[in-house]
Amino acid sequence: MASLLYRLGRFAFRRRWYVTVMWVVVLFALGGASAKAPEAPNSTFSAPGIEAQRAFDLMEQRFPGAQADGATARMVFVAPAGQKVTAPANRAAIDRAVTRAADGQQVVSAVGPFQARAVSKDGSTAYATVTYTVAADDLTDAAKDTLRGAAQSARDAGLTVEMGGTALATTPSAGGAGEVIGILVAAVVLLFTFGSLAASGLPLLTAVLGVGISMTAITVLSDPFGLSSTTGTLAMMLGLACGIDYALFVVSRFREERANGHSEDVAAGLAVGTAGSAVVFAGLTVVIALAGLSVVGIPMLTKMGLAAAGAVAVAVLVCLTLVPALIGFWPRAVLSRRYRRTGRRVQGVLGNFGSRWAEFVQRHPFPVRFTAMCALIVLALPVLGLQLGMPGDETKPTSSTERRAYDDLAQGFGPGFNGPLTVVVDVRDADDPKAAVAAVEKRIGATPGVVSVSTPRFNAAGDTAVFSAVPADAPTDKKTEDLVHTIRDERAATVAGTGATFEVTGSTALNIDVAQKVQRALIPYLVVVVGLAVVLLLMVFRSIFIPLKAAMGFLLSVLAALGCVVAVFQWGWGASLIGVESTGPIMSMMPIFLVGIVFGLAMDYEVFLVSRIREAYVHGEGAGQSITTGFRYSARVVAAAALIMIAVFAGFVTADESMIKMIGFGLAIAVLFDAFVVRMAFVPGVLALLGDKVAWLPKWLDRILPHLDVEGESLSRAHPVPRKQQDEEPENREETSVPG
Q1: How many other CB atoms sit within 10 Å of the CB of residue 394?
Q2: How far apart are CA 44 and CA 28, in angstroms?
Q3: b or e along 190-207 (b: 16 or more beta carbons within 10 Å of the residue's beta carbon)?
Q4: Which stretches are transmembrane (predicted)?
Q5: What is the pLDDT of residue 722?
Q6: Computed from CA positions of residues 619, 622, 623, 628, in that sequence, does the dihedral angle turn out positive or negative?
Q7: 673 to each of 554, 651, 680, 682, how far by Cα in Å?
Q8: pLDDT at 44
């Protein structure tokens, strides 16, 4: 592996023009194709294999056209204090507003509250429903203006009017200005790390180019593969972060090999052969983790995972080819100013912070490891109170009209009104369909926790009926979840003797079913992803303990990160500091997202750091000294890479979409824990306690596993450090002369 990548890096360095032009041509070709590609389809969510999805599919089959994708708007009217919406003046104002909304463009129907009996018992609140012929994204400005004007006319009459539904909903931005700030922070970190504008700008340039290729490719493939406009958000996030980090390691290793006295082309080859090998296997673990999201069985999650895996694969290819090619254009510019001026560099043989920290951990391995473990376990405790769901309008800021409409409806009609259960009754085998549906409706309506049920509505064939059951509690309340299970558990008794059967769906039931589906898939997902990665790390490091230690450290960091997500987004601790105005359940897919992505990123730092430690061990150093050597050369670069990841992910915390905000926060905090607590404290503590035993591998397993030579042992034999450099390198001095 190392020899193959060495030849690739040296080829890219020498044929820099061909390699660079090739990538630019690919970018422009995909850009041109994406400009002509059909528009990405609207985001749709489905979860095969759950009852709520089966019921929804049955509704689409039996009620053709009823489940249209047209936008809807709900106008919520609240009378002034002490008045009722049924008062003559208020009623007239509401009727005028509904009539005006009905006259708008693209409107199918506008049903007023007095026509649909949509008035609260106390008469304080009412709502009207406006349905459109097209989806929200296709509504004209004139149609939206008419709706806003209708609402304003009722406000002018003294009523409070808020708007819910999809008609006026805006498409949230992925990261906004935070993305730009994250990239700027990454640039500053790179500048401090390298002390060279060229070396700092090169990882940013290649990462942005890689993301451009990935995003244009996703746009081209969006129509044939049904990729929605939100599919690429995760791909952009990971492609940018991984692209910067991977290039950072290769550029850093090139500078080191130049300082060791190697020629420019050999140094480029060695950088790709050693650091590039770590990039390949680190990237492969990320790809495995992301592709493994398909285990969950949710198409949207599978598409997001595969798109992000493709972006990471592109980042790896760019790092292995374009990075050494661009280095070839400015081989001296990427070196530090001190090196270019004097031919000397800060070697830090025994004196840099990384080596001092490694020696400190080796002197106190148990306290350091114990402290790191305890801190992460404490941070993980909120996971015990994890509540999964799909955040809706209740989690939007109170400044939004959707949130105020949600609150007004909950106050006027009860907490469960915003999350009614939809019951789909199949009476194909019933002797008396109407009597069967009436029996089911009566039984469900009498279930404790059900406030009311609507009048059943039959399809044209008369073999299927649909009605709503309004729970007494809010959609995200545990009592509502118990109610759904109760209705389903009593299904046999409910339909006994009727010949009918029914299923429960609706947004509330769908969220409950998805959460349970994800929870059931989490263990198989962990087994698949962690199992494959452990096998991969066995081949890379040829040790039993290193993969097990890596998996344990990952579990600590991901649980601590998930605990912080629960504390902030569910409990509200410090939520206002990142712009979270309302708390609620954690997005159902968040745990498996966090597990998959953080596992891949955790393996990045494991491979980068431990491969350098093992490289020193393979080249003859003792167990303790190899830890010090690995940290001497890698700690600063790993810390810089982690800070860049944190900055990029934290930029997405500024997103309007709560899902992206939550993912950005979770990834940023997870990288913080994994890089600075697990990899910098827990890992060296465990390695120091194990000593030489860390390299133990059963002989039978050693014979089975292929030899990959990630540490570049064959390269060190073929390209040893020049004798002059070895003779001149002092043992305890910070500066080392380097041939110019």
Answers
A1: 20
A2: 30
A3: beebbbbebbbbbbbbbb
A4: 180-197, 204-222, 234-254, 266-293, 305-330, 370-390, 522-541, 553-573, 585-605, 633-653, 665-690
A5: 60
A6: negative
A7: 10, 18, 10, 11
A8: 65
Instruction: Report the mean per-residue pLDDT for the chain.
Output: 83
Of the candidates 238, 256, 268, the one whose C-alpha atom is nearest the C-alpha of residue 7 is 268
* Residue 170 pLDDT grade (very low, low, confident, very high; cuts 50, 70, 90): low
Top-tier CATH class for 72-165: alpha beta
Q: Please give the DSSP secondary-structure letter assigned to residue 324.
A: H
Overall average pLDDT of the 180-208 stretch: 81
Asked if 211 and 677 touch (Cβ cutoff 8 Å), the reply is: no
Q: Residue 41 carries which DSSP code?
A: P
Whether residue 344 contacts residue 737, with contact meaning beta carbons closer than 8 Å, is answered with yes
Q: What distance in Å separates the CA atoms of residue 447 and residue 723, rounded to the nearest whole number? A: 86
Q: In the prediction, which pLDDT does 77 show?
A: 95
Which DSSP string do the residues of 58-122 spell out, in sequence order?
Answer: HHHHHSTTTT----EEEEEEEPPTT--TTSHHHHHHHHHHHHHHHTSTTEEEEE-TTTTT-B-TT
- Indicate the pLDDT class of residue 480, thresholds 50, 70 and 90: very high
- Mean of pLDDT values over 12-41: 88
Distance of CA 664 to the CA centre of its chain: 7
What CA–CA distance (Å, rounded) separates 737 from 722? 12
For the chain, what are the domain ranges? 2-36+173-341+351-390+512-723, 72-165
Angle, alpha carbons 215-329-7 (nearest 5°):
80
What is the distance between the alpha carbons of residues 685 and 376, in angstroms, rounded to a whole number? 15
At residue 317, the pLDDT reads 95
**Residues 77, 373: Cα–Cα separation, whole Å:** 54
Q: Per-residue pLDDT tens for 347-398?
A: 444 457 888 888 898 899 889 989 999 999 999 999 998 888 777 777 777 7
CA 591-529-609 angle, to 5 degrees, is 95
Q: What is the pLDDT of residue 436?
A: 94
Give 316 or 186, the one with higher predicted confidence.
316
Contacts of 184 (CB under 8 A, 6+ apart): none
pLDDT tier, 337 (very low <50, low <70, confident <90, very high otherwise)? low
Q: What is the crossing angle of helices 545-565 and 658-673, to 10°? A: 140
How many whole angstroms separate alpha carbon 494 and alpha carbon 489? 10
List helix spans (H) across 343-477. Answer: 353-363, 365-380, 401-413, 433-445
pLDDT at 734: 36
With beta carbons less than 8 A apart as the criterion, state whether 639 and 648 touch: no
Over 146-182, what HEC string results?
HHHHHHHHHHHCCCEEEEEECCCCCCCCCCCHHHHHH
Q: 466: phi > 0 → left, psi -120 to 50 → alpha, else beta; which? A: beta
Q: What is the pLDDT of residue 151?
A: 94
Under a CB-based contact definition with an 8 Å cutoff, are residues 602 and 554 in contact? Answer: yes
**Res 376: pLDDT:** 94
- Per-residue model confidence as pLDDT tens digits over 567-593: 998 888 988 888 777 777 888 888 887
- Asked if residue 478 lies in contact with residue 436, where contact means CB atoms within 8 angstroms, the answer is no
23-32, 34-43, 404-413, 722-731: which has the minimum mean pLDDT?
Answer: 722-731
Burial of 559 (0-12, 13-18, 19+ CB in 10 A): buried
Closest-CA residue to 507 (of 422, 584, 401, 412): 422
Cα–Cα separations (whole angstroms), residue 639 to 282, 345, 354, 674:
16, 20, 10, 11
Task: Report how far residue 588's alpha carbon sits from residue 514's, in angstroms, rounded to the nearest whole number.
Answer: 7
Would you state the pLDDT for residue 346? 45
Those residues with Cβ within 8 angstroms of residue 226's Cβ, 6 or more apart along the chain or in another chain: 41, 303
Give the pTM. Answer: 0.79
Q: What are phi and psi of 652, to 5 degrees?
A: -80, -10
Task: Please answer whether residues 421 and 485 qualify as being in contact, where contact means their C-beta atoms are separated by less than 8 angstroms.
Answer: no
